Amino acid sequence: MIRRYAFEAAHVLPWHPGKCSQLHGHSYQLLLTVEGVLDDRGVVAEFGELDDLVEATVIGGEHGLDHTDLNRVIDNPTVERVAIHIAERLSAIAINWRRLELWETSSGAAVIER
C-alpha cells in the first residue's frame, strides 16, 4: 500500500551556488510504501492508524518537520538528508515501510528503499 503525506518546511544550503543559498521553503510530498501480510481485517496497514503514526513521528508533534526551519533539525538539510532523517524516524517505530519517496519540488525527489 502507498500513502501520501505533505508538510511545509524551510531551509538554506549555504554551500549552494544558486538560489538555495538563501532561506526558502518547500511544500514536501512524502510517499510511503508499506509492505506486509494482510491482517485479520484484510489490510496491510489501516490508513488512519498509519496516518496517526506518521503524524506523531514525522510531521507533527514536538519534533515534527511541518512548518520548521530544517537547518535547526538536520545538518545540511538536502532532500537526501531529510529523507534519511524521516527513514530513521520511521524505522524506530512499528511501521513496515519498504520505500520512501520525498519530493522537494514537482521535479526533484530522494528515494530510499529497504
Task: Walk me through this protein's architecture.
The chain has a domain at 1-29 and 37-46 and 75-114: 6-pyruvoyl tetrahydropterin synthase/QueD (Tetrahydropterin Synthase, Chain A), CATH 3.30.479. The mean pLDDT is 96. Helices cover 23% and strands 33% of the residues. It has a 5-stranded mixed β-sheet with strand order 3-1-2-4-5. It starts with a strand and ends with a strand. It is of the alpha+beta class and 114 residues long. The chain has 2 helices and 5 strands.
Proportion of residues in extended strands: 25-35%
Provide the CATH topology of the domain at 1-29 and 37-46 and 75-114: Tetrahydropterin Synthase, Chain A
Helices, by number, come to: 2
Class of the domain at 1-29 and 37-46 and 75-114, according to the CATH hierarchy?
Alpha Beta
What summary fits the major beta sheet? 5 strands, mixed
Order of helices and strands: EEHEHEE
Oligomer class: single chain
**How far is the first residue's CA from the last residue's CA?**
15 Å
Q: Radius of gyration, Cα only, in angstroms?
A: 15 Å
Q: Give me the CATH superfamily of the domain at 1-29 and 37-46 and 75-114.
A: 6-pyruvoyl tetrahydropterin synthase/QueD
Structural class: alpha+beta
In one word, what is the shape? elongated
Low-confidence sequence ranges: none
**Spatial strand arrangement across the major sheet:** 3-1-2-4-5
Q: Assign a percent range to the helix content.
A: 10-25%
